Amino acid sequence: MLDKILCVDDDPITLMLCKKVVERVEFAKEIITAKNGEEAIQYFDKIFEERKVNDSIVYPKLVLLDLNMPVMDGWEFLECYMSKDYQNVFSSTRFIVLSSSIDPYDINKSKTYPVIGFLSKPITKEMLENLKTQFV
């Protein structure tokens, strides 16, 4: 079981479903949510600052990320995350794109980031059961 994951999606129903499935499968102890990429970056900015004084602060090891969102979409989030060089501080954080898009362009583009999977919405119990093996 992961200590913490972050779900980033602009749809409140998708966020609620994600939380329920994660809880049912006992995939993570804590589920943080953000409505868009900007909120997610603000969250990482906050824990980045907290880790400067306390490096035992638990951070998400997995981010479930939607691509199409207002304010800051998933691609913009990944670009911003990479430009801040958070990979050094949050070295074990991985991303899974959870999208309604099955566009081959999006799938290929995701491979240029620390994305370990590209899954179609909605997230299911079976998807999380398969992911568990990657995080054990």
From TrEMBL:
One Pfam family from the record: Response_reg
Tell me the ranges covered by the Response regulatory domain, including all copies.
4-136
Which keywords fit this entry according to its UniProt record?
Phosphoprotein
Source organism superkingdom? Bacteria
Spell out the SMART domains in the cross-references: REC
Q: List 4-aspartylphosphate occurrences by residue.
A: 66
Q: Which Gene3D superfamilies match?
A: 3.40.50.2300
Q: What InterPro entries does UniProt report for this protein, alphabetically? A: CheY-like_superfamily, Sig_transdc_resp-reg_receiver, TCS_response_regulator
* Name of this protein: Response regulator
Lineage of the source organism? Bacteria, Pseudomonadati, Bacteroidota, Flavobacteriia, Flavobacteriales
